[in-house]
Q: What sequence folds into this?
């Protein structure tokens, strides 16, 4: 069975090249990938995750609003009954914020320069637990 990943671009940030590169790398690693496109709300991301019955949710955030967006997505997922699905975040996130995000329930924070192979491997390992 293929791992199904939702890659989302929340907030007003209009730069999605990184999200598209990660989405293609995950697809090339054998995963099924749904890319939501730009400027998604936390509500639309969780709705898509529910509709598509994904195994993992990935958020690409470069706007600096990662703390607020992630907490909202995690809360909505919990309220929707999918709080057990792992959520990862990619983007420009300070190390101290990355630690706070992990404590809040984000399974991994991938910063610039993270190898695409290691992202795919971490997702596979996490989903297969």
A:
């Amino acid at each position: 069975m293929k791992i199904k990943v939702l890659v989302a671009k929340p907030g007003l940030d209009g730069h999605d090249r990184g999200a598209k590169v990660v989405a293609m790398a995950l697809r090339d690693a054998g995963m099924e990938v749904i890319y939501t496109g730009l400027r998604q709300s936390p509500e639309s991301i969780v709705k898509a995750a529910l509709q598509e019955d994904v195994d993992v949710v990935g958020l690409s955030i470069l706007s600096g609003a990662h703390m607020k967006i992630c907490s909202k997505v995690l809360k909505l997922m919990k309220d929707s009954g999918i709080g057990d699905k792992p959520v990862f975040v990619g983007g420009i996130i300070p190390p101290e914020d990355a630690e706070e995000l992990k404590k809040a329930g984000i399974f991994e924070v991938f910063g610039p320069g993270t190898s695409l192979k290691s992202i795919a491997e971490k997702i596979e390992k996490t989903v297969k637990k």
